[in-house]
Amino acid sequence: MTKLTHIDEAGAARMVDVSEKQTTSRTAVAEGFVAMRADTLALVTAGEAKKGDVLAAARIAGIMAAKKTSELIPLCHPLAITKATVAFETCTAPTGIRVTAEVRVAGQTGVEMEALTAVSVACLTIYDMLKAAEKGMTIECVRLVTKTGGKSGDWRADG
């Protein structure tokens, strides 16, 4: 079994010491999906959601979330993020919105959690903006797609 880096010898939680790690360029891409009915998606594409521009609000929320990850996830390092983007793709089969976030940093630790947090909060914002139209939406398949840089090198999800 792999040793957990956030647990010390006594079993207590700790923030990993990255002070001796080399600074490298690191990127992470994450994705998620908000499933909804076709009539709910039509509100987004027509710009007719009662709360306003759903995707603009979700984009800003996702970027802000990436920047605040260390305040939300225990033991995450605060990072000087150099890039954070959130993109959307509307889909008809299945019906919903695919959310993708890319986060970059030149640092001593990776940005996987920042990308995952960006996607999660963007998906939650989409739900919030549309819940008056449909409370049964689901947030699905939030996952890391790729990561580059660092000691462990590059990684890509299957499929």
Q: Roughly what is the average pLDDT, rounded to an integer?
A: 92
**Can you say what the CATH homologous superfamily is?**
Molybdopterin cofactor biosynthesis C (MoaC) domain
The value of Rg in angstroms is: 17 Å
What summary fits the major beta sheet?
5 strands, antiparallel
Q: Which class in CATH terms?
A: Alpha Beta
Please mark out the parts with pLDDT under 50 across 5 or more consecutive residues, or reply none: none
What helical percentage do the residues reach?
Answer: 25-40%
Bin the strand percentage.
Answer: 25-35%
Q: Which topology does CATH recognise? A: Alpha-Beta Plaits
Count of individual domains: 1
Strand order of the largest sheet: 2-3-1-4-5
The overall strand count is: 5
The secondary-structure class comes to alpha+beta
DSSP helical segment count: 4
